Amino acid sequence: MCGIIAYSGHQAATPIILDGLRRLAYRGYDSAGIAFTQRGEIHVIKTPGKLEALVDKVAASDNPMLATCGMGHTRWATHGVPNQVNAHPHLSSGGEFALVHNGIIENYREIKAELTAKGYTFLSETDTEVLLDLIAEYRKSSPDTLTAFQRAVLRADGAYALVLTSRDEPEAVYATRKNAPLVAGVGVGENFVSSDITAFLSHTRKVIFLDEGDIIRITPDTYQVFRVEDLAPATKAVQHIEWDIQSARKGGYKHFMLKEIFEQPLVLRSALAGRIAPDWSGVLLPEMNEREILRRPGRVRIVACGTSYNAGLWASSLIETWGGVPCSVEIASEFRYRKPLLERDELVILISQSGETADTLAALKVARECDCSSLGLCNVVGSSLAREADTIIYTQAGPEISVASTKALCSQMALLTLLAMYWGERRGRFAAGELKTLLAEFAALPDYLEKQLPQMLEEAKGFAVRTASFHNVFFLGRGRNCALAMEGALKLKELSYIHAEAYAAGEMKHGPIALINPDFLTIALIPHDGHYAKAYSNIQEVAARSGPIMAITEKSDDPSVTLDWAEMYWHIPAANDPFTSFLLLPMLQLLSYEAATYLGKDVDQPRNLAKSVTVE
Ligand code: F6R
Predict the structure, then answer these.
(1) What are the tens digits of pLDDT across the range 189-204?
(2) How far does the centroid of ligand 1 lie from the alpha carbon of residue 113, in Å?
(3) Residues contacting ligand 1 via CB (< 6 Å)
(4) In terms of pTM, does the model score above 0.85?
(5) Which atom of ligand 1 is nearest to the CA of 612?
(6) How far apart are CA 367 and CA 311, in angstroms?
(7) Whose CA is nearest to atom 11 of ligand 1?
(8) If you take atom 7 of ligand 1, which residue's CA is the nearest one?
(9) Atom of ligand 1 lying closest to residue 404 CA
(10) Burial class (CB in 10 A: 0-12, 13-18, 19+), 60
(11) 2 is catalytic
């Protein structure tokens, strides 16, 4: 998704902005640009493609780049194709303002018609350029830029983070946000605005989280925040961020994705830290003390997108069997528009790594409109979900840079497992000593997984080469393994672009089995859990139709259990259900990672994908 960085200080702005853009690249983008004011003129340099192309263009420019204030943008196209004209920053018709924008101005057509009638013409297909000329138009009848900006922002419907610079105020940057992330960084003799803290973290750790409807104006030595409604000054707390910037680097791994897969033992440790009672008697979730509905919900509705949705699917049966709470799981983009019937005693759990996914945030609003309590599971501190949900539990997976989500899912599954235990404990669902045993096994999991990961990686390489020789792959599983099958298929398709689908194994005979032939690989997830026997039979139906099979299962001591029907079998390290899933998950992640690298794909930034989907 688009990234913004703006700087006002006493140093040359361009290198700082380009460095900020590099740190934002993980969000996904298809063009990039910068703008700065020098000798009474706003200069814009932009280009489609990767940042290197922008860096080369800046280097080739004969402009001395002396400006100490400016802004940069990485664009992920929403209006208009990713080309130079549509790339940001945009320059107003009269050259007096430059604007960068994340999000969508929904009523831009109406504004465009109005401005066109006044004689404005537009170079790009973007909604951004329309809003920019509206600012320029309002400036004619406003006492200052701040007021013109405010008037235009009040006209704009939709979701946006906007940053504006002005030819007449070469040291000032104006910014605002609505349903899109934007933070300010407060330095010494320099200030920043960005869509993401990481863009300026090497310069300052002092941060202001802007609320919706805040307008901020920064100069090298000042920052002022106003409310958009009436331009009344707003007082903001400056927070200190503890993030380690090293953790946002690859740390010796070839790709962020591989690093993040290998961080999963650490992620599990952080998820469990302080969450298990010292005498192993129960789960500690102090966040749940806030309200009775958190301690004893009547029902649970999980709403999320993509991998986070798969986390919900995976956990739903645990929430029911252990927690004793009826649980349903929905895709946020469907939930938000289908006018769901929600009971007042229903707890809506929103799961989002980024905390900025537009559909998930819209689902939160639906829950609020129905007077339901919301619980956010989120990885990004200070994100919109973290600030807007009634209660937030941080998944503490650390920054996830790879566009494809891996360790965030592991952390979500861990927290949801703890939640299921927490509710089960309160509803007396566990036999004497049962929870203690489960917690001990859970606590041992990080060390166990850490030992297994290097071997898993080695094994994945061979299986991945064979997988990469297919154009079509089924992932099959039953129960919780069905959710993991969905995640396995999602990872394989998004990373390697191999067509992959997931099915509940029992559904195969209801249609999909027609696709089975010697060129269609089936990856069967059949750990020795309660579904094993049934899943095993379903896979035999594939084998009987000459479908090649990779079986992922545990080693068995039972001589009657043969795997000779499978072309390949990959053994899951021994563990008990549901903890086996925390071992199966990295196996699937590594399989896709290796298949994609073998096929020479861009693992950390797959095509067409964005890390944080802030538009619907
Ligand atoms: C897949 C992936 C996406 C995200 C989805 C939701 O690897 O990363 O499917 O899981 O876009 O994102 P969050 O969790 O940030 O709401």
Answers:
(1) 999 999 888 899 999 9
(2) 36
(3) 305-308, 352-354, 357, 360, 404-405, 490, 494, 612-613
(4) no
(5) 15
(6) 20
(7) 306
(8) 404
(9) 7
(10) exposed
(11) yes
Residue 117: count other Cβ atoms within 10 Å of its Cβ.
Answer: 8
pLDDT score for 63? 79
Beta-carbon count within 10 A of 287 CB: 12
Q: What's the 3-state SS for 283-317?
A: ECCHHHHHCHHHHCCCEEEEEECHHHHHHHHHHHH
> Which residue, judged by its Cα, is nearest atom 16 of ligand 1?
352
Distance between CA 318 and CA 307 in Å, rounded? 18
| Domains in the chain with CATH codes | 3-102+159-249 (3.60.20.10), 259-442 (3.40.50.10490), 449-598 (3.40.50.10490)
Give the list of residues 6+ apart from residue 58 with CB closer than 8 angstroms, or none: 14, 18, 34, 45, 65
Alpha-carbon gap, residue 482 to 494, rounded angstroms? 18
CA of 354 to the centre of ligand 1 (A): 8
Q: For residue 491, what are its two tokens?
A: 């990872």
- Strand pairing of 97-105 and 191-194? unpaired
Pocket test for ligand 1, best of 305, 330, 360 (most atoms within 8 A of CB): 305
Query: Could you give the maximum distance between any two Cα atoms of the chain, in Å?
Result: 86
Assess whether 611 carries a catalytic annotation: yes
Residue ranges in the chain modelled with pLDDT below 50 = 247-248
